[in-house]
UniProtKB/TrEMBL annotation:
Keyword line: ATP-binding, Chaperone, Nucleotide-binding
Protein name: Uncharacterized protein
Organism of this sequence: Punica granatum (Pomegranate)
Family named by the database record: Belongs to the chaperonin (HSP60) family.
Organism classification: Eukaryota, Viridiplantae, Streptophyta, Embryophyta, Tracheophyta
One biological process term in Gene Ontology: protein refolding
Nucleotide-binding is among the record's keywords: yes
InterPro entries reported for this sequence: Chaperonin_Cpn60_CS, Cpn60/GroEL, Cpn60/GroEL/TCP-1, GroEL-like_apical_dom_sf, GROEL-like_equatorial_sf, TCP-1-like_intermed_sf
Length: 245
């Protein structure tokens, strides 16, 4: 509110311009205001003005600023208190909370799809009817189809099941919510079971994988680690007695 962008500097601030709150937490990077005591009617009117500005503005920069302001006025604040028996345990739990928070934000932006890789698996049905113009395109479609089946196949295989059998059985079904719960070894409705993925995460993962694959396909050489050679390397330096002169 008080910034050069709005034409207001600290020397121009008056008491009537300030508000009140029950708790304010200030850190190096953030300022969190809890239980603001402002007039809710005035806040809602301001939110409506911002929504109108977002719809009418032709500038992407102005839209982003208005959206940011709107989210601060209309959004709530949640505080997560993470505890544990040790610093390592607290850190691990904090990472889980952060991952869940990021996944929730992604889900709010673009929605969710059935998890466990089944959304990618069922997308292969579209590829089966895709018309190609030459052998190279056909081969490319086959590669993508194989890649889309990989998540379900890998999850099932890592859990000790026949991944190929699981993939085949799921593709026989018409219910695109049906998936394989590897933890229970059962076929379930993934959405009802709470096994879901943010659409944004699935989409960007596929796009990034395609981008890397294109880079590998057009490069002249790739440097990789040869596991066979590494396994044959001596585990220790030879002793003086072992050397031939």
């Amino acid at each position: 509110v008080i910034s050069k962008d709005h034409g207001i500097t600290l020397d121009k601030v008056r008491a009537e311009m300030l508000g009140a709150a029950k708790k304010v937490t200030v850190s190096l990077d953030d300022t969190i205001i809890l239980h603001g005591e402002g007039d809710k009617k005035l806040i809602e009117e301001r939110c409506e003005q911002l929504r109108t500005a977002i719809e009418k503005s032709a500038s992407m920069f102005d839209k982003e600023k208005a959206q940011e302001r709107l989210s601060r006025l209309s959004g709530g604040v949640a505080v997560f208190k993470v505890g544990g028996a040790s610093e390592a345990e607290v850190g691990e739990r904090k990472d889980r909370v952060t991952d869940a928070l990021n996944a929730t934000r992604a889900a709010v932006e673009e929605g969710i799809v059935p998890g466990g890789g089944v959304s990618l698996l069922y997308a292969t049905k579209v590829l089966q009817n895709l018309q190609t113009q030459n052998e190279n395109q056909k081969r490319g479609v086959e590669i993508i189809e194989k890649a889309l089946k990989a998540p379900v196949l890998t999850i099932a295989s890592n859990a000790g099941f026949d991944g190929a059998l699981v993939v085949g059985k799921l593709l026989e079904q018409d219910n695109h919510h049906l998936g394989f719960d590897a933890a229970k070894g059962e076929y379930v409705d993934m959405v009802k079971a709470g096994i879901v993925d943010p659409l944004k995460v699935v989409r960007t993962a596929l796009a990034d994988a395609a981008s890397v694959s294109l880079l590998l396909a057009t490069t002249e050489a790739v440097v990789v680690e040869n596991a066979d050679v590494k396994s044959k390397l001596p585990s220790r330096m030879p002793q003086m007695d072992d050397m031939d002169y």
